[in-house]
Specification:
- The complex is a heterodimer of chains A (439) and B (341).
- By secondary structure, chain A is α/β, with parallel strands linked by helices.
- In chain A, 26% of the residues lie in helices and 21% in strands.
- Chain A has 12 helices and 23 strands.
- In chain A, strand 17 (335-339), helix 11 and strand 18 form a beta-alpha-beta unit.
- The relative contact order of chain A is 0.10.
- Chain B has 9 helices and 11 strands.
- In chain B, the strands form 2 sheets. In chain B, strands 1, 2, 3, 4, 7, 8, 9, 10 and 11 form a 9-stranded mixed β-sheet that branches.
- In chain B, strand 5 and strand 6 form a beta hairpin.
- In chain B, helix 1 packs across helix 3 (107-118) and helix 6 packs parallel to helix 9 (312-318).
- The longest helix of chain B is centred in the last third of the chain and has 18 residues, at 280-297.
- Classes of the chains: A alpha/beta (439), B alpha/beta (341).
Chain lengths: 439, 341
Amino acid sequence: MSTIDKSEPVAGAAGDARTSPGAPAPGSCKSAPGSCKSASGSTRRALLRAVGGGACAACAARLLAGRGAFAAEASAEAPAAGDSHGRIVVHDARWFERLPDKAVKCQLCPRECTVADVERGYCGVRENRGGDYKTLVYGTLCSLNIDPIEKKPLFHYLPGTAALSVATPGCNMECKFCQNWNVSQVRPEQVESLLMPPENLVRSAVARQCQTLAYTYTEPVVFSEYVLDTAAAGRRQGVGSVMISNGYIREPALRDLCKHLTAIKVDLKAFTEKFYAEQCAAKLAPVLATLEVLHDVGIHTEIVVLVIPTLNDSADEISAMAKWIVKHMSPDVPLHFSRFHPMYRIQNLPPTPVETLDRARKVSMDAGLRYVYVGNVPFHAGESTYCPGCGKVVIKRVGYNVDVVGLRRGSCASCGRAIAGVWSQQDALAFKPKEKAAT
Amino acid sequence: MTDAGGVTRRVFLAAAAGAGLLGGGLPETLRGGSPDPPRKPRVVVIRHEALAAEGQGPGPERVREFLDEALKALTADTKAADAWARWLKPSDRVGIKVNCLGYSTRPAVALATAASLGAIGLAPQQIIVWDRTSDELRRAGYDVAASGKSARCFGTDALADRGGAGYGREIVTSGGIGSLFSRIVTDETTALISASVLKDHNIAGLTCALKNFFGAIHNPNKYHDNGCDPFIADTCAAEPIRKRLRLAVCDALRPQFSGGPSLRPQWQWGYGGLLVSTDPVALDRVALEIIERKRASAGMKPLEAEKRPARYLASAQARGLGTADLASIEVLSIGKAWDAI
């Protein structure tokens, strides 16, 4: 159940009379169609801003429709959809335990925050309201894009297809190198957002011919309630769901999500507790536990490592990481080494030398991994997929240009060896998680 | 000696007649001249039964009588305006940071502070009573307005039209924190007064003058690990706060010794006090002692035993923000003794 908190503007202080909460009834807008604000030629961010600047939901729908964007049908058919700037959407949270004196213990992620009444958890998006735990980001999208699936990156999952990619604010880590800190490290009331119920998002994906919904950019774990409901709705409409995550989630919640997801990409930030503690305010062990659960569940999983000079780039660390993946997961797990650029709180280190990425790739392949990639380096040969049997190119990639040159029904066209991955939507939607083995 | 509603000072102040007598990490007196050699930082605690009233409690005029008296004791001035003028000048733009999360700083305390600032020549437009959001202020009983009789009053979110939801664009790094600071601090003020409420905190142990400034950053939720230590200290040591913070005023009218930061009337009591200091660390240390003594008298465990010992105080001292050692603090009682719980 969702409700909306009203937040009235301060007359004269902000000088900004925001739209009143909630969308008007159809036909109640007194503006001419599309006349609330013109978004012609604007960026998507400007578009969202325009939506938040006083337009009613119906006009927002027209603006979005005029841009060939996603939410036209969503807004038109669902009065609840629209701008949520200045408002908090309050939705019942899952995965928590009630404690005495109106406190709660969050059971979503390994932090297991004990949250007193009126307080929020570490993520900043889950709040205790009188002993009831609420999520404040259910369907409040701060980012909305159509991306190639390769951008996630997922290289062994429906190559060359599009993913309708969404995020809500918040994260349960604080990585000092975060590329999206302006949406991940904020509270929901601090960013503009568009309210998008699950069914509307799925309809938008179908309308835009996106085979996949991607929960990405920030940390989907913190909006797991929305992920779960949207992924379930997507499956019913033939749309898969992938989660691009830091893997910082407790096992029960993860297994719940895997009932509806079709693939996951996990950021393995490093392979030392020191790095996780000092750079991410988190721990490594729970992430490794997540990877083991994902392998146990059987969901398609790819791993990305952002290689940061001097912090997590030693050959020994990379080698240990790769060996762990081989041993605890599979040599078929795709591993991506991505290039770091100075960002957020780490401005004093240079971009990762390409040689460092090359070395990481070689070390990992020497450790037994079969599909190892180099990312954020245009035209690098390590962007393409090679058959581990004959070495021929199976999928050629240059940036987000994808050419499936040597894959036939999931196998190498040259030598016939099976290439690990999910190669058809039918296979993606057929995924069912394995039950947890009895202990 | 002038008194406030019949209270008398329990400590003779002759020894403190000089100016610039206050230790701690805050700016020296604005009056210039050579301050006396450093002395113990002073925390003034003024108590009166009129301040302990339940319900609506005393109005701002009544609170101001006691507040001015406390300021005079803090500086050893005979006129309240002279005392306030040691720390704030008529050209300042002053932000009075209240704490509206859960159990809130009473509006009467903030308004009394604003009225005293008005008495030294600050116009209402130069004074902002503020917290994170206007909604929180309203819920705490504040009259949110862009202009008011004695001060403006609104939340950081009221400046959202400047971008960033009212927070700055550049990350400020200070020790362990990396945060955007409220534009009320950076754009609208030259000086800050921490107007906190004395209460227990379920993670930090205590929330008072220092933790109040978690409400000045955009991401306080990230900094509650390890009892908020050293993050509270790092926040207050950050340049936007450190260079502006002039004074700490604490609403200890009816402090809350358990169950904080949310409102738990069953754990409040009529202490009837106001605490004032230019050393926010010292003020917090005295405040902590008050809470601990009350908890002990109620048969509760010390905060240390509950694994929330307000360890951020030591970090604040280490960063030069003030004095956390109780023995090194001069606590000046007016009215009932500060440690008579």
